[in-house]
């Protein structure tokens, strides 16, 4: 049986004649059937990495192979074996939704009947049937995004690259989309999921790599990335809008603010002290509520990158 | 179970059958992408051709038969090259601007089949416009064209040359705004300062020398030779120049498309 494992070894890519590194010595291995997350803040080098997989960019050094196929040396092969949903909008303004899907399926080498059948199945599965005959220009951002997903997966590659697939998609269809992403794995594709939404990734991926400033900071299953935080809890505090920012005691680590939400990591042994602190802030009218819970992947992500997923930045502890 | 019909790729597709399949699928993709624009574009091209030959004709009270023949054929020749040279690069620049370029270039088709689809698209827009321009000129100036078999290679070579120059330019230049600007300059130069609608001798000597090297004047010569009798000389030289430019544009395109940053 053929080996369809994806291997990147020492992939390095720089811009400005070596001034800035988009990727620095990245080595990963992704197996058929795996959903593999590439997580990192904006500008971390995730999209650059996947563009090298599909042959739109070329690494300065390092190799990328899919089984016996050298993807760097043979971009024609890479395009046949991999399918790619870019972050940018799909060029389907003048296509009816089902036309765009069927035509890409045929371009991807599917036979007309088989593509038509799977097109209809996916349209049903994602509940976008009511827009089947609608021109792309008239579709909402979310439906366009789903159409893009179906276009690149109606005839999936050995590697399926999805760059922020859930952008603009409503919560209900997001769930349906995750189901389809899992099914791609069951078909045997290795799925690259590029995202900066850690909460979503935690539920969807088998393994993930955390990338920042072009470097691979950590790799593993969502659980394994949280092991460094074993014995810790997550303390979350909703601050009162307009109230002064509270001074953070030393027991709180990796604190970050998203809007009025303060999220920190705290050792289990300090839990009661942390609760007392939170209750005092509520008494002073600085905080509205608090919650103490298990560490999530997001906390591990903040520890690794110093970034909150989304736009907010971590605050100094 | 119907889903069995779709399977993950096992082998790499190659060979002539795959190439033709890719060409036809990409051409359908391009035609559908331009479905809203295409009829408008063809109509506009015809209007440009009509406006050009009739408009310039208004400058002169008495147009000699030869001048009318120049003008009539010239407008048609400009219609033939302007789409590939100006409109097509602008479409590619727009793709780069909107960020949709990456998806188009990640599709699993041989690059040569994408190029061939682009040439076919250019022909689909340009040739009807050119025919229309000839009909309008023939009616307006009351001139007779004498078609010879050489019109076929002349039109094809001119079309491929113009389209490939525009295509190479659009892919080679990263900045979409620069492509837009450059196509404006090309359009202006081709429409105004190229001896397609008037004889080469009407230009100052230095500009004549420039046009001996550039392909546009020579495109005019070879196409006109297929439409008229007795007003074209040194045909083989013009064929050589246009052919050289075509080969150069194909070489640049191959280089640009093969290059990955």
Q: What's the number of domains of chain B? A: 1
How much strand content do the residues of chain A show?
A: 25-35%
Order of secondary-structure elements of chain B: HHHHHHHHHH
**Level of helix content of chain B?**
over 70%
Written as H for each helix and E for each strand, in order along the chain, the element string of chain A is EEEHEEHEHHHEHEHEEHEEEHEH
Distance between the termini of chain B: 44 Å
Describe this structure as you would to a colleague:
The complex is a heterodimer of chains A (317) and B (261). Chain A has 317 residues and is an alpha/beta fold. Chain A has helices spanning 46-53, 75-81, 97-107, 112-125, 141-153, 171-187, 198-204, 222-225, 271-283, 297-305, and strands at 6-15, 20-30, 35-39, 61-66, 69-70, 82-85, 159-163, 190-195, 207-212, 215-220, 232-239, 253-258, 261-267, 287-294. In chain A, α3 crosses α4 (112-125) and α3 (97-107) runs parallel beside α5 (141-153). Chain A is globular, with a radius of gyration of 22 Å. Chain B has one domain (21-258). Chain B has ten helices and no strands. The model of chain B has no long low-confidence stretch (mean pLDDT 88). Chain A binds chain B through residues 2, 4, 51, 54-58, 69, 75-77, 79-81, 83-84, 86, 88-91, 93-95, 99, 103-104, 106-111, 113-115, 117-118, 121, 154-158, 187-189, and chain B through 2-3, 5-6, 8-10, 12-13, 22, 25-26, 28-29, 32-37, 95, 98-100, 102-111, 260-261.
């Amino acid at each position: 049986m053929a080996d369809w494992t994806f291997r990147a070894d020492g992939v390095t890519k720089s811009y400005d004649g070596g001034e800035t590194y988009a990727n620095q010595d990245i080595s990963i291995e992704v197996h058929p059937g795996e959903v593999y997350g590439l997580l990192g803040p904006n500008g971390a080098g995730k999209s650059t990495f996947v563009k090298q997989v599909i042959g739109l960019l070329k690494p300065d050094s390092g190799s990328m192979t899919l089984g016996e196929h050298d993807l760097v040396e043979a971009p024609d092969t890479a395009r046949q074996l991999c399918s790619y949903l870019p972050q940018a909008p799909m060029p389907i303004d003048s296509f009816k939704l089902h036309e765009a899907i069927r035509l890409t399926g045929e371009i991807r080498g599917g036979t007309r009947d088989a593509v038509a059948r799977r097109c209809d199945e996916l349209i049903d599965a994602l509940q976008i049937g009511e827009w089947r005959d609608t021109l792309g220009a008239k579709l909402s951002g979310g439906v366009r995004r789903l159409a893009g997903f179906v276009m690149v997966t109606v005839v999936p590659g050995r590697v399926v690259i999805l760059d922020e697939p859930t952008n603009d998609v409503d919560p209900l269809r997001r769930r349906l989309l995750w189901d389809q992403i899992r099914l791609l794995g069951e078909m045997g594709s290795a799925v690259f999921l590029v995202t900066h939404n850690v909460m979503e990734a935690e539920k969807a991926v088998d393994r993930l790599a955390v990338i920042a400033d072009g470097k691979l900071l950590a790799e593993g299953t969502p659980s394994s990335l949280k092991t460094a935080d074993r014995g810790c809890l997550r303390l979350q505090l909703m601050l009162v809008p307009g109230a002064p920012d509270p001074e953070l005691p030393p027991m709180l680590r990796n604190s970050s603010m998203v809007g009025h939400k303060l999220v920190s990591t705290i050792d289990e042994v300090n839990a009661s002290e942390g609760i007392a602190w939170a209750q005092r802030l509520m008494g002073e009218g600085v905080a509205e509520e608090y919650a103490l819970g298990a560490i999530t992947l997001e906390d591990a992500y903040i520890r690794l990158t110093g970034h909150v997923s989304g736009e907010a930045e971590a605050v100094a502890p | 179970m119907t889903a069995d019909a779709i399977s993950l790729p096992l082998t790499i597709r190659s060979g002539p059958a795959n190439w033709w399949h890719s060409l036809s699928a990409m051409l359908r993709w391009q035609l559908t992408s331009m479905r809203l624009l295409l009829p408008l574009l063809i109509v506009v091209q015809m209007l440009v051709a009509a406006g050009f030959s009739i408009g310039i004709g208004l400058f002169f009270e008495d147009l000699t038969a030869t001048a009318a023949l120049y003008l009539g054929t010239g407008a048609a020749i400009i219609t033939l090259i302007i789409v590939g040279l100006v409109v097509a690069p602008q479409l590619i620049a727009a793709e780069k601007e909107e960020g949709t370029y990456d998806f188009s270039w990640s599709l699993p088709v041989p690059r040569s089949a994408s190029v061939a689809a682009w040439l076919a698209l250019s022909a689909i827009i340009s040739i009807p416009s050119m025919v229309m321009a000839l009909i309008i000129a023939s009616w307006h100036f009351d001139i007779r064209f004498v078609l010879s078999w050489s019109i076929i290679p002349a039109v094809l070579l001119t079309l491929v040359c113009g389209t490939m120059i525009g295509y190479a330019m659009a892919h080679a230049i990263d900045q979409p705004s620069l492509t837009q600007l450059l196509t404006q300059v090309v359009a202006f130069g081709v429409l105004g300062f190229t001896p397609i609608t008037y004889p080469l001798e009407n230009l100052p000597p230095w500009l004549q020398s420039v046009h001996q090297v550039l392909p546009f004047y020579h495109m005019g010569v070879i196409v006109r030779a297929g439409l008229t009798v007795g007003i074209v000389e040194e045909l083989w030289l013009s064929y050589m120049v246009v052919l050289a430019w075509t080969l150069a544009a194909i070489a640049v395109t191959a280089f640009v498309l093969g290059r990955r940053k």
